Amino acid sequence: ARFSVAENPAAPEGRVIDLYVARIKSLSPSPAPDPVVLIAGGPGGSSIEMYLNFARAFASVLDKRDILLVDQRGTGRSHPLTCSSDLSSLEDEPSIEESRQAAKDCLDELDADPRFYTTSIAVQDLEALRVATGYRQLNLYGVSYGTRVAQHYLRRYPERTRTLVLDGV
Questions:
Q1: How many degrees, rounded to 5, is the angle at CA 5 between CA 130 and CA 81?
Q2: pLDDT tens digit string along 62-71?
Q3: How would residue 91 be classed by pLDDT, with cut points 50, 70 and 90?
Q4: pTM to 2 decimals?
Q5: Could you give the CA distance from residue 129 to residue 168 in angstroms, rounded to a whole number?
Q6: How far is CA 152 from the centre of its chain?
Q7: pLDDT score, position 42
Q8: Which of the residues 13, 94, 115, 119 could staple to 87 if both were Cys, CB 3.0 to 4.6 A apart?
Q9: How far apart are CA 133 and CA 115, in angstroms?
Q10: What residues form DSSP beta bridges with 23?
């Protein structure tokens, strides 16, 4: 599904972007009230793609709980921040000036304001999704960079975090 959020959380009447989300329903007729949320690494990885690649590893979770997935803003299918510039075609290591120019070119072609594609704002998105889906608490499973996101969520919303798994800090 798509979940719409303000690109700039401080300006909810401004530009809106869509986050790509999925809920894998539990096999239980009476699932636990708190889903497991997979948070991908990268940064830049898609949580939905991560789940698709490792679904068997999480199959037993579905015996008792839903799994909630969201591609963090700027990743996967959630208004991805991608650039056409590619320094890999250069024969030698790119110079600092070439790297700076490639970064500037990339920023110029983005259809986004990169100030609003941060870990802190992604955590706000996750909380907004929790509220919208009606879950009281979340069980967070962070992988690599996702461990940072999970810890940030815990720090900001401790009463909304039931458990935390850090996989590859």
A1: 110
A2: 999 999 999 9
A3: low
A4: 0.90
A5: 25
A6: 13
A7: 82
A8: 94
A9: 27
A10: 68
Which residues neighbour 116 within 8 Å (Cβ) at sequence distance 6 or greater? 7, 8, 9, 73
Mark residue 68 as left, alpha or beta (left: phi above 0; alpha: psi -120 to 50; beta: remaining).
beta
Which one, of 156, 126, 128, 131, lies nearest residue 141 by Cα?
126
Please state, in angstroms and rounded to a whole number, the distance separating the CA atoms of residues 36 and 38.
Answer: 6
Run of H or E residues at 5: strand 2-6
> In Å, what is the CA distance from 4 to each residue of 15, 38, 86?
10, 20, 31
Joined tokens for residue 106? 């990339």
Contact 48, 66 (CB under 8 A): no
- Structure tokens belonging to residue 73: 């803003």
pLDDT in tens, 97-118: 888 888 898 899 999 999 999 9
pLDDT tens digits for 126-136? 999 999 999 99
Task: Give Cα 39 distance to the centre of its chain.
Answer: 6
